[in-house]
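Notebook, bench 3.
Goal today: get a predicted structure for RNA polymerase subunit sigma-24 from Streptomyces diastatochromogenes so we can plan the truncation constructs. The sequence was checked against the plasmid map this morning, with no discrepancies at the termini. Length recorded as 436 residues. Pasting the sequence as submitted so the record is complete.
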Amino acid sequence: MEAQPTAAQPTAAQPTAAQPTAAHTIETVFRLESPRVVAGVARIVRDVGIAEELAQDALVAALERWPRDGVPDNPGAWLMATARHRAVDLVRRRETYARKLAEIGRDLETTAPASYDEPADPDDIDDDLLRLVFTTCHPVLSPEARTALTLRLLGGLTTAEIARAYLVPEPTIAQRIVRAKKTLATKNVAFEVPYGPDREARLGSVLDVIYLIFNEGYAATAGDDLLRPGLCEDALRLARVLSALMPKEPEVHALTSLLEFQASRTAARTGPDGTPVLLKDQNRRRWNRMLVARGIRALDRADATATGAPGRYALQAAIAACHAHAYSYEETDWRTIATLYGLLASRAPSPVVELNRAVAVSMAEGPAEGLKLVDALTAEPALRDYHLLPSVRGDLLARLGRTAEAREEFARAAGLARNESERRLLRAKLRSLPGQ
C-alpha cells in the first residue's frame, strides 16, 4: 500500500512496418533526451524558448530521416548535434559572425565534463542541466510557472501530463509555460548557476522541482509504464551535484538521501511483465544496497549540517531510512514512521502526507484507526481525483473484511488512475477479493 506527488505518418507509397517502429523509437528517444538537448542548446542561444524550438526542429529532422536511413547508433547524440548545428546557424544569422562564432567555439572546445560525484571546485560546476533548472526556477517567475516550465523542459512532460499532475486545466498549464519562456527572455535572465544569495534564494524551488522530476520517473503520471528511469537518473544526478555545490545545506543532502533510498527500490518495484509490485510485496534482496548506503551517508551529512528542526526533505528521508533498515514490511518501525509523518504534516501540511500517515497508523495501530484518518480526507478537494485515496481506502476495508465496500473503492481507483500499469494492478486487486 504505497501512497506517494504526433508521430510522422508513413507515406502511402511506402507503408512499411519499419516506419512505425522508427517513429515509436524517435518518440521514446526524444522524450528521454530532450532535457539534455534543450539544456545544451540553451547554452548557445541563451534563450530556453528558442532552445526548445530548436530541439523540436531536431525531432522533425529525425522523423524525416530515421525511417528512411535507419536509427543512429547513438540517437541522443544525433539529436544533440543536429540541434546544436541549427543553434550555431541561428547565431550566425542573428549576430556578427566572427565574434559570436569565436565565442561559441571557445565555449564548446574548452568545456570539460563535470565530475558529478566529486567536483574539483564546488563553485565551478559545469552542467547544462543544472544551469537549466536554476534558470527555470528564477524568482522572476511565479512558483507555479517555475514548476510547469521545469517539468516541461527537464522532465519532458507534455502540457497534458503536467495538467493532470496538478489537477488544473491543460490550457492553464500551456499559458503558464508560454508566459514563463517569454518572461525569461524579456528579463534577460542569464543561463547560469547563480552564486551567493541568489543561489540560496532559488534553492527551495530547485529542490522541489528536482523532487517532482524524480517522482514523475518513479511513478509516471500517465502512459503504459510505471517507471521512467531516465528522469530518476537525471534528478538523482542533479541532487548529487547540488550536494557537492552546497555542502553546508542540510536540505540538499536530505533530498539526495531521499532520492538515493527511493532509487534503491527500482529493480523490485515491477514484475517481469511490468506490473507494479507494492512495497509490502517487494523482494528486499533486490533493493540496491549501494544506493541504500549512499542514502544513509547523505542523511548523516544532513543531520551533521542541520542547526534547527529537520526540514521536510530530512523528515521524508528519515521515513525512507526506516524502510531501508527493515528486513520486511511487517518488521518496519511503523510507529516511528507514523510519528515522522505527523511531524511532516505540521512542517509541510498536505492531504497526501496525511494519507501516507494513515497508512503508517493502520500498520502500527490497526486498519480501523487508519480508516478513520482516511475517511476524514474524503472531502478534500485536492484528493477528489487522486486514485490512491480510494486505493488506500480499499486496502483498509479489505483488511477489515468489508469486501463489498473494498470492491467499490478499487473499481473507483482503477477508473481514476492515469497510468496503465497502475490500472492493471488495481484491477488485479479487485479480482483477488473474495466472491469474485
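Residues 4-20, 110-126, 222-226 have pLDDT under 50 and may be disordered. The longest helix spans residues 18-45.
Flagging this for group meeting.
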